[in-house]
Amino acid sequence: AEILKYKSFNAFKEVQNVGQPSIPIKWVVTEQKEDGKNQPYKARMCIRGDLEKGKENIRSDSPTASKETLKLALIIAANEGFKIKSVDVKSAFLQGCQLEREIFVRPPQEANAEGKLWQLLQGAYGISDGGRLFYLKVSEELIKLGMHKIHSD
C-alpha cells in the first residue's frame, strides 16, 4: 500500500541505475491501537536522509509559530467566537512539494525494481528538506487564499 501511495502521487520516476549516488529506504513498522485493541501493523517507507551526502548544504529550516503567537491566535479566536479546527494532512510531504534537486533512492525489495533507482520528484518523509518543502507549499496555497505572512514570529 505504501509503494502504491508513492506511485499515486507521482512521487518518483524509475530510472536505470548507472552508478548515481543513492540513499536507501527503511521500513518503519508500528502497531496501530484503537480503543485499546491492537489493530494490524502499519508500515511506512522512510527515506534515509541521514545518509544523504552533502546534506549540510541543504536548507532544511521551516518556521514554526512561537507559543505566545499560538496563545494569542487562540485568544482572538475565542473572543471572536471562531471555530478552531486542526488538520492532519495525509501523506503531507507527497502533496505537490516539488524537489529542486536530484535525489535517487534505492527502491525497497518489494518494488521488484532490480537494477533501477527511484528519482524522487516530490518531497518525501526522511529527506533533509522535506519539512521545508511542505512549509513552502502550504505557504503558497495560503497566500493564494488571500492570507499574509507575518514576519515578527
Can you tell me about this structure?
The structure is a single chain. Helices cover 24% and strands 22% of the residues. A 3-stranded antiparallel sheet has the order 1-5-4, with no helix packed on it. A two-stranded antiparallel sheet has the order 2-3. It contains 3 helices and 5 strands, in the order αβββαββα. It is α+β, with helices and mostly antiparallel strands. β2 and β3 (37-47) form a beta hairpin. The N and C termini lie far apart (39 Å).
Write a short abstract of this structure.
By secondary structure, the chain is α+β, with helices and mostly antiparallel strands. The protein has three helices and five strands; from the N terminus they run αβββαββα. The strands form two sheets. A three-stranded antiparallel β-sheet has the order 1-5-4, with no helix packed on it. It has a two-stranded antiparallel ribbon with strand order 2-3.
